């Protein structure tokens, strides 16, 4: 049993909506015409390339919602690295249901495994440093919970889930408020004592303003490594430091070496390629 899983109450509505989108008004015309109702089959979910698996709960839910008689048996769990040609799970039961649910199950499994794999690659690139890879709110609408789950399965951590679980004062907030100090003053007068406050800066002068007033974390946006190193030294542990901007497996090691606590990466959830996984019929 994998240590990574999602509550059924989170998974099922997402999968149900995807199946309804695919089934439309008339159901699976192709499968119902081609496959006899009584036909049973055994199939395997197989990795076509190396990567880290995530999303098996959603794939299993897709098959189960179409036909409860379909049984999915996992060969690996979420968070596990697989090689090309490796079986991820086997599926047995009514063939019609398997073929109807196939694309929805694979859409989730491939998408989330792609996110987990990219996160794992970034985490490996910064191994030996204290920094953690974190995702952002740049997620697919309606899929935030599962995409952020995939980041965790890949060895990363989550930034805030929404606008309501933390304060992040961005450059536009600062511009509208009239500066860093008034923005921080208004936030601290408004939010509760358990709400963390982070603020974005892109210069060392702005960082000095933040340190004079105080915050829980500072987002060091698009700073080159030399400036990041200076910023970390100035902060001296008084708040969490988060770097963002131009992060890739090639640039991440230099960013992590500056001593930042967190490296946030938007593309993990908005434009990561899928992990190629197929469903093969066992003859």
Give the topology, please:
Elements (H helix, E strand, L loop, with lengths): L7 H16 L5 H6 L5 E8 L3 E2 L3 H11 L4 E4 L6 E2 L4 E8 H31 L6 E3 L9 H10 L13 E3 L1 H7 L2 H11 L6 E5 L2 H10 L3 E5 L3 H11 L4 E5 L7 H5 L5 E3 L2 H4 L6 E5 L2
Parallel strand pairs: 6-11, 7-8, 8-9, 9-10, 10-11
Antiparallel strand pairs: 1-5, 1-12, 2-4, 3-5
Helix pairs in contact: 1-3, 1-4, 3-4, 4-5, 7-8, 8-9
Subunit structure: Hexamer formed by 3 homodimers.
Family: Belongs to the NadC/ModD family.
Pathway: Cofactor biosynthesis; NAD(+) biosynthesis; nicotinate D-ribonucleotide from quinolinate: step 1/1
CATH topology of the largest domain: TIM Barrel
- Name the overall outline: elongated
In the CATH hierarchy, the architecture of the largest domain is Alpha-Beta Barrel
- CATH superfamily grouping of the largest domain: Aldolase class I
User: What is the H-and-E element order?
Assistant: HHEEHEEEHEHEHHEHEHEHEHE
- Beta-strand content estimate: 15-25%
Total number of domains: 2
In percent, how helical is the residue content?
A: 40-55%
Label the structural class.
Answer: alpha/beta
What characterizes the major β-sheet? 6 strands, parallel
Strand arrangement across the biggest beta sheet: 6-11-10-9-8-7
| Uncertain runs | none
Supply the number of helical segments: 11
Count of beta strands: 12
Question: What do the pLDDT scores average to?
Answer: 97
CATH class bucket of the largest domain: Alpha Beta
Q: Radius of gyration in whole Å, from Cα?
A: 23 Å
């Amino acid at each position: 049993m994998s240590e990574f899983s999602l509550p059924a109450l989170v998974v099922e509505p997402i999968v149900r909506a995807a199946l309804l989108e695919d089934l439309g008004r008339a159901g699976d015309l192709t499968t119902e015409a081609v496959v006899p109702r009584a036909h049973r089959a055994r199939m395997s979910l197989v990795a076509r390339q190396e990567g880290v698996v995530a999303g098996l709960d959603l794939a299993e839910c897709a098959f189960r919602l179409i036909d409860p008689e379909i049984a999915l048996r996992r060969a690996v769990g979420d968070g596990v690295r697989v090689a090309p040609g490796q079986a991820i799970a086997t599926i047995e039961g009514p063939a019609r249901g398997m073929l109807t649910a196939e694309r929805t199950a694979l859409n989730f499994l491939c998408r989330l495994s792609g996110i987990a794999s990219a996160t794992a690659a970034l985490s490996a690139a910064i191994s030996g440093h204290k920094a953690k890879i974190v995702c952002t709110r740049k997620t697919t609408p309606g899929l935030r919970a599962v995409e952020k789950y995939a980041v965790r399965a890949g060895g990363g951590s989550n930034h805030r889930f929404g606008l309501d679980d933390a304060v992040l004062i961005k450059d536009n907030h600062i511009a509208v408020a009239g500066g860093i100090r008034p923005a921080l003053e208004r936030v601290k007068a408004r939010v509760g004592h358990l709400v963390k406050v982070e603020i974005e800066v892109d210069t060392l002068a702005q960082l000095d303003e933040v340190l004079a007033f105080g915050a829980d974390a500072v987002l060091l946006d698009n700073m080159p490594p030399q400036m990041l190193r200076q910023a970390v030294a100035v902060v001296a542990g008084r708040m969490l430091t988060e770097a963002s901007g131009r992060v890739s497996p090639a640039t991440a090691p230099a960013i992590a070496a500056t001593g930042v606590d967190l490296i946030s990466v938007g593309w993990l959830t908005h434009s990561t390629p899928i992990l190629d996984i197929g469903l093969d019929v066992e003859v």
